[in-house]
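Quick one:
INPUT:
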């Protein structure tokens, strides 16, 4: 009976470690998504700036 109790205790310990790991990974995903959102906004702002400069260009950038 002790071995069954030991196995149950070990499973509970493993489960609690997995819960903690999942929470840490979830936080990482949240932070990555926030960074991606920030980069998307920056990319859009840069595109707008480039498009606003385009009419002012009289020569091709290659010339």
């Amino acid at each position: 009976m002790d071995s069954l109790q030991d196995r149950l205790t070990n499973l509970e310990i493993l489960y609690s470690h997995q819960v903690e790991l999942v929470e840490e990974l979830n936080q990482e995903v949240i932070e990555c998504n926030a960074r991606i959102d920030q980069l998307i906004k920056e990319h859009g702002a840069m595109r707008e700036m480039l498009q606003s400069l385009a009419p002012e260009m009289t020569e091709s950038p290659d010339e």
